[in-house]
Design a protein that fits this description.
The protein is α+β, with helices and mostly antiparallel strands. Helix content is 20%, strand content 10%. It has a three-stranded antiparallel beta sheet. A hairpin with a 6-residue loop joins strand 2 and strand 3. The longest helix is centred in the first third of the chain and has 14 residues. The chain is globular and about 40 Å long. The two termini are 19 Å apart.
């Protein structure tokens, strides 16, 4: 993780969360005192976090000073699956073939 600068957690991105992930994300935000803006999915099926809805235009769980994920051990599945392909701004993705 020392080479990661949180490029995937910055900018005008949308993080889709399942209902259980959204519940856990909210609990983490409450525990950490983080303001959280959620775009609710219709029918109670989770929601999305738009990074540009948050200060600094990054994931609200990203520590802006260190680029570390504050919930890394319990991060959502989409975050766990990243990187899924090579990306020029992601040093970790360069390991993918």
């Amino acid at each position: 993780m020392e080479t990661c600068r949180g490029g995937c957690c910055r900018g005008p991105l949308l993080l889709q969360l399942t209902a259980p992930e959204l519940e856990a994300f909210r609990a983490h935000a409450d525990r950490l005192g983080v303001a959280l803006h959620v775009r609710e999915a219709s029918g109670g099926g989770g929601g999305a976090i738009a990074f540009d809805d948050h200060a600094g235009e990054h994931c609200p769980m990203l520590d802006g000073a260190t680029s570390a994920c504050r919930i890394y051990a319990d991060r959502p599945s989409r975050c766990r699956a990243f990187p899924d392909r090579r990306r020029p701004d992601c040093i970790l993705s360069l390991r993918l073939s």
